């Protein structure tokens, strides 16, 4: 019965994670149409690719037994991320393209090093711990990648995608919700999907007694729940407008500009979310 339940939550996590992976398609279609990456950054896509690769490797039977569902979604994620990176490189300006090529080289080198060390120098539980730690450590690097790119709000991935989504979405989105006292820039469906995805993988990790899945996705589930609670609190609030002095007015104007950028990115993600919601 436990194996059936674990399989169910793993499949659920795969379905929801795939839907979240595909959210930025609208953004990249915009990049293709405009033939420009505009102000978007390629860093999160490269870091997400690294995490997908490391997590897919971690889930392989000879590294981490009984975690093949981790490999299926992260293997798929690696392919999707690679496509995003290629599109970004094609349409980026020359200077940015060179930087992103350098970062892609670092990503490839790190993954290759982890694979070779785990295959040639480690065996059994030591291999599992090493690969699990590598995936967790570099997920932290992804958390720190530029948070101005809300366009990639639904791209970030740790061992099972959604914990990073929650981290990035909460750092930016929750801060904005609290400041504006409005959920205008935090789509409910996306927040709910993040929570369900994190919870599915958290339970999957608990049933498999795997700390490298439990810890990041437990955080993802908690942060997704935080979003839902904030939504419940501020759902009927359109935001408070307070009088401001000159200095405050300048700061407020800057915040409005940031809010517009966030809103534009969230709208893009939400458009895709609504389109495929019936399939989840």
UniProtKB/TrEMBL annotation:
The chain crosses the membrane at residues 7-31, 43-60, 67-92, 98-122, 129-151, 157-178, 185-207, 213-234. Mediates both low-affinity uptake and efflux of sugar across the plasma membrane. Mediates both low-affinity uptake and efflux of sugar across the membrane. It is a multi-pass membrane protein. Belongs to the SWEET sugar transporter family. It comes from Dichanthelium oligosanthes. This is Bidirectional sugar transporter SWEET. The lineage of its organism: Eukaryota, Viridiplantae, Streptophyta, Embryophyta, Tracheophyta. The keyword Cell inner membrane does not apply. Its main location: membrane.
